C-alpha cells in the first residue's frame, strides 16, 4: 500500500478543474459541475462536485491538505477503498450541506474539502494511539461520541470563512471519525487491491 491513491485523487481534481475551465470557455456554466437541489436534475454532480473547485486558490488549498492527509490514510488501505471512501463521504457531505442551506436560500456546493475532512476524521480516530487514549479515558460510548463531535466542531470552526461549506466539513469529519472507529479502511496484512490502484 502507498500514497498513490491520494496522488490519483489530486490528479482527478486537477483534471476536473481543467474540464471546468474548458467548459467555461465553451459557454458551459459552472453549475454543470456543482451540486445543487433538486438532485434529480443533474445527478452526475454527486460525483463531479467532489472533484470540482471554484478557483485555482480553492484547488490549491484543498490539494495541499489532500497531500498531507491522504497518503497517511492511503497507506493503511487499498486504492479501491480509498477512492470509494473519498467519493462517498464527499458526496454525502455535499448533500447535507445543500439540504442544510436550503432554508436560508440555498447554494450550490463544490470542492473536495468534505471528503478531505473525512480523511482527517479517519486519521484522528482510526489509529492505535487514539485507541489507547480513548481506552485510558473513562468516557464510555456516549463520552467518546461527545469527544468526536466536539473535535469535529472545533476543526470546523477553525476553517470558518465566507463561502466555506462548514456543514460539509463537520459532516465529513464525523463520517470519517465513525469509519475510523471501526477501522473500515484498514486491510489485513496480505490483503491486496484487485485493481492494483493502491500499490504496495
UniProtKB/TrEMBL annotation:
The cross-references to PANTHER family, in alphabetical order and at most eight, read: RHOMBOID-RELATED PROTEIN
Tell me where in this chain the Peptidase S54 rhomboid domain is found: 41-181
Q: Where would you find this protein in the cell?
A: Membrane
User: Membrane-spanning residues where?
Assistant: 58-77, 84-102, 108-125, 145-178
Starting at the broadest rank, the lineage of the source organism is: Archaea, Methanobacteriati, Methanobacteriota, Stenosarchaea group, Halobacteria
- Known EC number(s)? 3.4.21.105
- Keyword Membrane (UniProt): yes
| EC class name | hydrolase
Designated name of the protein: Probable rhomboid family protease
Extract one GO molecular function annotation from the record. serine-type endopeptidase activity
Which Gene3D superfamilies does this UniProt record tie to the protein?
Rhomboid-like
Amino acid at each position: 500500500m502507498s500514497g498513490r491513491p491520494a496522488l490519483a485523487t489530486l490528479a482527478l481534481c486537477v483534471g476536473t478543474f481543467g474540464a471546468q475551465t474548458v467548459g467555461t470557455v465553451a459557454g458551459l456554466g459552472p453549475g454543470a459541475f456543482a451540486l445543487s437541489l433538486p438532485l434529480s436534475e443533474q445527478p452526475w454532480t454527486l460525483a463531479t462536485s467532489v472533484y470540482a473547485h471554484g478557483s485555482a486558490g480553492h484547488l490549491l488549498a484543498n490539494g495541499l491538505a489532500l497531500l498531507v492527509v491522504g497518503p497517511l490514510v492511503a497507506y493503511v488501505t487499498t486504492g479501491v477503498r480509498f477512492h470509494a471512501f473519498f467519493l462517498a463521504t464527499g458526496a454525502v457531505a455535499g448533500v447535507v450541506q445543500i439540504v442544510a442551506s436550503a432554508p436560508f436560500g440555498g447554494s450550490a456546493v463544490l470542492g473536495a474539502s468534505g471528503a478531505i475532512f473525512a480523511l482527517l476524521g479517519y486519521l484522528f480516530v482510526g489509529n492505535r494511539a487514539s485507541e489507547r487514549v480513548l481506552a485510558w479515558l473513562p468516557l464510555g460510548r456516549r463520552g467518546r461520541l461527545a469527544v468526536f463531535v466536539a473535535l469535529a466542531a472545533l476543526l470546523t470552526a477553525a476553517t470558518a470563512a465566507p463561502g466555506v461549506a462548514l456543514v460539509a466539513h463537520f459532516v465529513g469529519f464525523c463520517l470519517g471519525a465513525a469509519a475510523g472507529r471501526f477501522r473500515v479502511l484498514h486491510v489485513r496484512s496480505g490483503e491486496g487491491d484487485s485493481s492494483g490502484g493502491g500499490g504496495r
